[in-house]
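Instructor's aside before we start: the two examples that follow are unrelated to each other. I chose them only because their records fit on one page, so don't look for a connection. First example below.
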Amino acid sequence: MDATMNQKRALITGITGQDGSYLAGLLLNKGYDVHGLVRRSSSFNTGRIDAIYQDPHLAGVRLHLHYADLTDANSLSRLVRQIEPTEVYNLGAQSHVRVSFDQPIYTADASGVGALKLLEAVRDYRDHSGAPVRYYQASSSEMFGKVVEVPQTEKTPFYPRSPYGVAKVYAHWITVNYRESYGLHASCGILFNHESPRRGETFVTRKITRAVGRIHCGLQKKLYLGNLHAKRDWGFAGDYVEMMWRMLQQDQPDDYVVATGETHEVREFCEKAFARVGLDWRDFVEIDPRYLRPAEVDLLLGDPTKAKQKLGWEPTVTFDELVAMMVDADLELAQREKTLLDAGHSVTFKTSRD
């Protein structure tokens, strides 16, 4: 690859996801060349990065997309050698906890062993080229699962309660192992729940705010949810990708909990989201057993003290601001849908039970 010695190049797996899109924007603003891994499919899934990918000053110049898959070791090795990254961010995964019970083998392969395949590709490239490369692993608060202490820190034992959580524990520890065994500059961010208007619509927060917009516009009547009493530490995804970058700028790699230090029930998220448009959530929310997990995680609450002290990181968006941000974005989306429908155009969106 023809590049200057001082030019930073980042490879992001999962670039088309929520975190990947925010991270791509952050790194481009910092002057990086950004390369993203995307899985081949019959339809485009680049909506979250279309704004930057369609910029003629970025697409093909400083932002590049490549077809590859975390389950395909050969494609990963080939891409790493081709791109010659200075930083690698592994954000790709089958990341839906409930779906991981339905697809446990694929989840283990993509979210767990996929990290090993990428680490091997990075180690092989470093050993043969002599070039320094830094690696970030997206670990998850779901690794704590049935928590043994509150709040959870970097030293809290893991007790995963889903195939996704188990896969993430493997990915986390194999990253630590490669750091200690091979001297890789490899860090893990143990991220607690982080949301945004770019969150996938099957995740509970976005499912709620999407329904609020549709209900307010008369496009939907009910919202079906599972456990309303589950407690989560919710932050803003845009804040959390800043933390990923900061980890890789340190002289020594390490692991960090990334969280707000506050916990809120799903019920509270519902209450505030519906109240944003002047509605009472109790008039619209019903429980559907299909959305209950076989093994529930009741409480997640992170302690970000280490991140604050060592990296100078602080979350900037409060829980109330996050809910308002997501509701406002989905209300605007629902209003556009309603306008199209009123004009006689067909609009495809999920039903209230999807």
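Example two begins here.
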Amino acid sequence: MSKRDYYEVLGVAKGADDKDIKKAYKRLAMKFHPDRTQGDKGMEEKFKEVQEAYEVLSDEQKRAAYDRFGHAGVDPNRGGGGFGGGAGGGDFGDIFGDVFGDIFGGGGRRGQSRAQRGSDLRYNLELNLEEAVKGKSVDIKVPTYVNCDSCDGSGAKKGTSAKSCPTCHGAGQVTMRQGFFAVQQTCPTCNGRGKIIPEPCSKCHGEGRVEKTKTLSVKIPAGVDTGDRIRLTGEGEAGMHGAPAGDLYVQVNVRAHPIFQRDGNNLYCDVPLSFTTAALGGEIAVPTLDGRIKLKIPAETQTDKMFRLRGKGVQSVRGGGVGDLVCKVVIETPVNLSDKQKELLRQLDESMAGESEAKHRPKSKGFFDGVKKFFDDLTG
């Protein structure tokens, strides 16, 4: 199956600059990323196609080779390298950008090629609503690769060092001629590193990294919500042979709460209300995340009436004002009545029987008028 033109894949003109190419890539990668498409194989293939196109067009040398020779100039089967890496395929950070900015550490992390950089990792962290709203510090255990302490990540036996590759002389690439074409490909001797290790480290077997479960303390900012990610720069897998480490993304999931539902900065809850309090008015205690407070109920309150308690919601992690707590009252029908209580309700009902129904039941008149009109229209 022939490949589509890379410029067509990203939807940009052949003369597009780097900024336009990156913008197009981010938009399409967000659209087709496996984390968003829930296992849709078609979307996953499109994501890989977009990723491959960007890998070529964002690299000055690869783009020049592609513009001159087409797909033959960058075919990974003839030396173009792969397009993988990162959490769930691709570089998690490049595609989405971390929600909170790089507030947990360091800057420049791409001193070496993308193919050598350690993989990004994802850790799923569950919090209850109170923890998410107020923030906390948590310790997490992450199985990963870390730099080998025996060789300091070099991969070479202690007391020795890597040597320049005799095949590519340190370039990492060799030139292959195929007819009229001269194509650069990854050096088969050093796999693109430009160096070889004559005496590999016995502990890491020349990789420069070993498996380890490390414990990290993560500060969860107040106001996080399900779907938010916290990036810990350099806490992903260590790169091979001393290459930079990837990043760790802590993915937040907030468990359902038995009382409150969160929507943005606001909290919502249903408050049961007795029949008599709804009719006569009164005062009830309602819960908030800071404790109980009193809420005045006016007389003749109907079910589903909303009461807004300002400032009793959530302070968003992204700043702005504190949200509100919205209480919806649900009037409860009395149950388990005694004979005397039932008789009192019958007397109440009889006392209202001679009066206009709309006087005591404001919703009923509109409802039954609508029902009458509906059947009149059907039979008319």
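The domain at 261-379 is CATH 2.60.260.20 (HSP40/DNAj peptide-binding domain).
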